[in-house]
């Protein structure tokens, strides 16, 4: 890219020229959140994708999110800045292995966390996000047997608050599995005025320490409501950008990981996005997310069911 190119200006110009909408996830870097038409969590972004009148969707997040936007909008062009922006949760549940797993439970319905491939969604009764997982699970009668995939930590947490005994697929998010209980306790001891808040993708010992557990949107709402002035936050560090914007006078400390040298609070896939890549992607309308028509047709059903329930 010519260093003289003013990226933000150019991105905004191209977006207008091409009638595109930019949807950014809470976990991408601050400037990529600030340039978006809509910034949010997977549920909000799926809703925004369902409601947009733009001709092209630029998804600044990870691949499964762009796939979801494509499934909802099969006739629109959906592009994302880096096709390699994957998700450890989505990768943890390959479709063939999941099909064999599901076959062992023929009388179970399948709830799939949105952090999954389109192929997995074709084998699903309903999709959920962390913002609506409890509501989606409770939309089934109590005696309905359920499989929850792919996040065992979120599934286990929902089991614990609903009293259900969903069968859990053995998947996890590599960012949320990295937190160190010992270091969090140490940090809490040193910051007794701070509240520790955590995302339900964290492991149970971490969740047991938390004053509040919730999706990114729920955590963001919580820090605005709480009287506390300081928070230790156990989720991907991108959300701190919105928290700081919403509460400039409060202090947000990223929860420490087991290996503090690895920058584990960052999702390496989310962080593949950059303003440069966004500019190139908009300019050349590449890379594009495409899916076979039969996958779109089958995967749309459980996503639409979720959107109906979450209106
Ligand atoms: O649902 C999402 O977007 C994710 C990955 C986390 C959250 O809680 O928002």
Automatic annotation (TrEMBL):
GO biological process: 'de novo' NAD+ biosynthetic process from L-aspartate
GO CC annotation: cytosol
Keywords: 4Fe-4S, Cytoplasm, Iron, Iron-sulfur, Metal-binding, Pyridine nucleotide biosynthesis, Transferase
Pathway(s) where this gene product acts: Cofactor biosynthesis; NAD(+) biosynthesis; quinolinate from iminoaspartate: step 1/1
Reaction(s) this enzyme catalyzes, per UniProt: iminosuccinate + dihydroxyacetone phosphate = quinolinate + phosphate + 2 H2O + H(+)
GO molecular function annotation: 4 iron, 4 sulfur cluster binding; metal ion binding; quinolinate synthetase A activity
Pfam families noted in UniProt: NadA
Subcellular location: Cytoplasm
Broad enzyme group: transferase
Sites where the protein binds [4Fe-4S] cluster: 87, 173, 267
Superkingdom, taxonomy of origin: Bacteria
Cofactor: binding comment: Binds 1 [4Fe-4S] cluster per subunit.
Binding-site residues for iminosuccinate, renumbered to this chain: 25, 42, 113-115, 130, 199-201, 216
EC number per UniProt: 2.5.1.72
Cofactors named for this entry: [4Fe-4S] cluster
Role, per record: Catalyzes the condensation of iminoaspartate with dihydroxyacetone phosphate to form quinolinate.
HAMAP family: NadA_type2
Family, per entry: Belongs to the quinolinate synthase family. Type 2 subfamily.
Descriptive protein name: Quinolinate synthase
Classification lineage: Bacteria, Pseudomonadati, Bacteroidota, Bacteroidia, Marinilabiliales
Gene field: nadA
């Amino acid at each position: 890219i010519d260093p003289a190119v003013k990226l933000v200006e150019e991105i905004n110009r191209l977006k207008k020229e091409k009638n595109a909408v930019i949807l950014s996830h809470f976990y991408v870097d601050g400037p990529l959140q600030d340039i978006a038409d809509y910034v949010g969590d997977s549920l909000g972004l799926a809703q925004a994708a369902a409601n947009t009148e733009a001709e092209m969707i630029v998804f600044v997040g990870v691949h499964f999110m762009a796939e979801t936007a494509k499934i909802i909008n099969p006739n629109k062009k959906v592009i994302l800045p880096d096709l390699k922006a994957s998700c450890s949760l989505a990768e943890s549940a390959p479709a063939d292995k999941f099909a064999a797993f599901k076959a062992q439970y023929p009388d179970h319905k399948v709830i799939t966390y949105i952090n999954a491939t389109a192929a997995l969604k074709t084998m699903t009764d309903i999709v959920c996000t962390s913002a609506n997982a409890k509501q989606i699970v409770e939309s089934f009668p109590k005696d309905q047997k359920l499989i929850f995939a792919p996040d065992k930590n979120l599934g286990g947490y929902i089991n614990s608050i609903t009293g259900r005994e969903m069968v859990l697929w053995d998947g996890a998010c590599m960012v949320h599995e990295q937190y160190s209980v010992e270091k969090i306790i140490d940090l809490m001891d040193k910051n007794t005025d701070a509240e520790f808040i955590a995302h339900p993708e964290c492991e149970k010992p971490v969740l047991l320490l938390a004053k509040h557990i919730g999706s990114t949107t729920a955590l963001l709402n919580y820090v605005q409501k709480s009287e506390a002035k300081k928070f230790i936050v156990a989720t991907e560090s991108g959300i701190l950008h919105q928290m700081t914007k919403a509460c400039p006078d409060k202090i947000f400390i990223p929860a420490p990981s087991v290996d503090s040298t690895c920058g584990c609070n960052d999702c390496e896939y989310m962080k593949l996005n950059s303003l440069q890549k966004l500019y190139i992607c908009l300019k050349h309308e590449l890379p594009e997310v495409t899916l076979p028509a039969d996958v779109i047709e089958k995967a749309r059903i459980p996503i639409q069911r979720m959107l109906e329930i979450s209106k």
